[in-house]
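The protein record filed here:
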Amino acid sequence: MNWEKKDVPAELVRELASKYGCDLLAASVFARRGLLEGGELRYFLEDDPRHLHNPFELPGMEDAVDRILVAKDGGEKVLVFGDRDVDGITSTALICSALAKQGMKVSWRLPTGNDTYGLSVKAVEEFAAAGGTLIITVDCGISNLTEARRAAELGVDMIITDHHNPQDELPEALAIVNPKLKDSRYPFRDLAGCGVAYKLASALRFAQKSRLYGHDICLFNQRPVNNAYVVEIAKLRNLSLIDRLVETIVPGMVDIGNTRIPAFLEGQSIFVWDAPLQKKTLEKIFGSGAEPYMPDILDLAPQIAEEIPPTAGKSLLRIKELSRIARYTEKNLTELDLFINLFTSFVHKKEKTFDADDYGELQLAALGTIADIMPLRNENRIIVKTGLDSLMKKPRPGLSELLYKLEFSGKRIGASDISWNLCPAINASGRMGNAAKAAALLLEENPRERDKLADEVISMNEERKKVGQTTWAAVEPLAEKSLEHYGGNMVLAAGETIFRGVTGIMANSLISRFKVPALVVSFNEEIATGSFRSLRGYNVRGLLEQCADLFIDWGGHDFAAGFSMPVKNWDTFLERLENAAQTIELGSLEDEETINIDAELPHGYITPDIFTLVDRFEPCGEANPPLVFMARGLKIVNIDFVGKNGAKHAKLTLDTGKHKWPAMYWQAADKVREEFDLNDKVDLVFKFSRNWFNGIETPQIIITDLRRAQGA
């Protein structure tokens, strides 16, 4: 393996540390990872949910909320339709819980057995026949054109919440809430389906709690510049900036009626900071003629000071110097920008928009985000971090039972624990054709019934493991045989013996085995269902788009997608696949053999205090891998061998001077005495972790690669 530690200028590290208030070691890691802008660093240095993006910036959100409130007031029947995977199951539970707490009549439905992905015409027709009037899709729907048309024919409204890539034609729905729509102004496109569902629940909570919902308001401010004044006005709706006016005016040169200000303010509630000063400045600029245009202005400074005491008696300019948010803004933050931020924080605090329900929903959103391998950057970091913190403190019903049965109760829970233990258990129900079991567990109110459902979910996971082992025995040789046929650019395994519920798992295993894109297809009667997984920079959507006319349904992400199609189209699909495979361009494998080192640690830094830095970069996962460190000249003072059915792994004790660290080196038992031995001094690349045993947490090192130190 190649060890690579990127050189970063010392002045850049010092600048980052000074500007963002972090230590030099953290700043050096930020620099090596290319995290240099406040907009990204904000989500590594701040944890408060108030740093999440406004849900009303998502397209279609206010229309969706309005329609749900109408359904509530009218006592309408509502159906929540989700997907069979973790993201879809948690999204379903999240929205159903949120609507039920509103007292609404809500039912839910997920694909079962061999149902295709997404909403079905059958589900639409059965819901309409039962008197239903509103369907909300979660983690699906963006490709359900036929189903949406059928719903419209039957007088059923549809709200689509999804995060999959939209195709050129969109479904006919009352509202589509998806950050990836072409006209979306949402600042982050990589929410999970459960993240989008959480945003809808948050928007509903705001609509129920805030008198500001659905109303436009204006924040008004004036500031001197040279011999003139800048008049700035921000128009907000649901705390989201929808319009802005900036006028530079020389006092006495123009009447206010001849500016754009009156029209912009007409019919609006007007809020200012320090009303006496603002009125005095207005009179200086326009004389007494300005008052009729602004008869009623509300001074927010006293009210905000009650909720945010450090602002009391200070001007916006002075508050700007103290603002934490200001440090993360690359542009020149104006006083009005600060006013907007203050007002938003004030409303959230005053109206308690983040409550116990919110934190329970974040637990589900965290699971969906991790399971769907969404990048743990931007607001996904807060969603997952806050959700996991809440999960450790008070797991919501359903998750509590699963954690207990998986022996995670009372333990520190990280993203990797969720990814390797909790998510597969929930996912197994969908893979085994009964996703409803897991959804029912998350929604069940009776503790005894939840305990029973948790046992069934765990049992399905054990069954899924057995099916996976059997299926792998069939899939691996098929894929190996196909590698040459597709020019070494991809592998394919297809057949009737491949269980549909594990095609995604098999495709992931194949890309790990062969390091090329992998397609696994299951045949069931007249339908072929496939899961496509990719790596090395190849976007599988382009290939699937060339075959869209053959599919019943298809969709997904750039590197993970799926489809269903009539078996009669299989031969035509294979012909196109062979042609497309010749054009696949993959990134270099050498990149995967290089270990990128985040920091080299002197011996004195290798203490338990290092977890302050390690935890700052949690949660780790997609687009934010665990921190990788290097150290030189550590002495091996003990070697043990561990492993079931023979010693496969080496357990070392490393002397760092102040501390002796336990260190696991997986699959390295045969390297002892060949590449290193007792009392050797070694250079190593490693990660820090925590090991739980008999209720005791022990810091440890996980070795990635190791070499004898030069001169040792």
Residues 1-45 form one domain. The chain has a mean pLDDT of 92.
